[in-house]
Amino acid sequence: MEQRLGKIKAVIYDFDDLMVNSHPLHIKSWQPVLARYGKNILDFPKEREKNTIGKRGIEVSEELINYFNIDTTPKEFYEEKVSIIIELFKKELQLMPGLKHSLEIFKQNNFRMAIGSSGSMDYINVGLNKFDIKDYFEVFVSAKDVTKGKPDPEPYLVAANKLGLRPEECLVLEDAEKGIESAKAAGCK
């Protein structure tokens, strides 16, 4: 495997919807927050929803607040959502098929591993601990480590830097267009 990947020394995994099936739970967690303001997540246009994938939660909060014209701060709005998603993750979160197998393959072939996410480390930790996979990773990048979410290259640049590697030495595994744009803009494979 090392021959085929050439100068690649590390693999950076996206978290949401690559490692875990989280998108339905994110949608589910926004609903009670919006309901407090008499709004329904189902009224948020699908095209706008698609545009939020890969963004930091605070940025999604800003979009929802602006779209629904809600009188609150993005921070308060997002913090309420995080407490709900953590409970949903504990009860309903599922691993994506093949994840553990991929982790084992990269580990057996001595690749370093990191997570590069725009999500909250609070809920990422719930997923990692629930499925006992945290020890595979030496570096974690979450919303607290970046000022811009994907498609900005910052999440992957920060991950490569924390690994002490050049971006071109990192292979990124992504599921979303914005994440792919982010990885390419960072110079990762």
Describe how the helices and strands are arranged:
Blueprint: H1 2-5, E1 10-13, H2 23-35, H3 46-52, H4 57-68, H5 74-92, H6 99-108, E2 112-116, H7 121-130, E3 139-141, H8 154-163, E4 170-173, H9 177-186
Parallel strand pairs: 1-2, 1-4, 2-3
Textual characterization of the structure:
The chain has 189 residues and is α/β, with parallel strands linked by helices. Helices cover 50% and strands 8% of the residues. It has helices at residues 2-5, 23-35, 46-52, 57-68, 74-92, 99-108, 121-130, 154-163, 177-186; strands spanning 10-13, 112-116, 139-141, 170-173. Strands 3-2-1-4 form a four-stranded parallel beta sheet, with helices on both faces. Strand 2 (112-116), helix 7 (121-130) and strand 3 form a beta-alpha-beta unit. The longest helix is centred in the middle third of the chain and has 19 residues, at 74-92.
What ranges have pLDDT less than 50 throughout 5 or more consecutive residues?
none
Q: Between the first and last Cα atoms, what is the distance in angstroms?
A: 15 Å
Write down the secondary-structure element order. HEHHHHHEHEHEH
- SSE-based structural type: alpha/beta
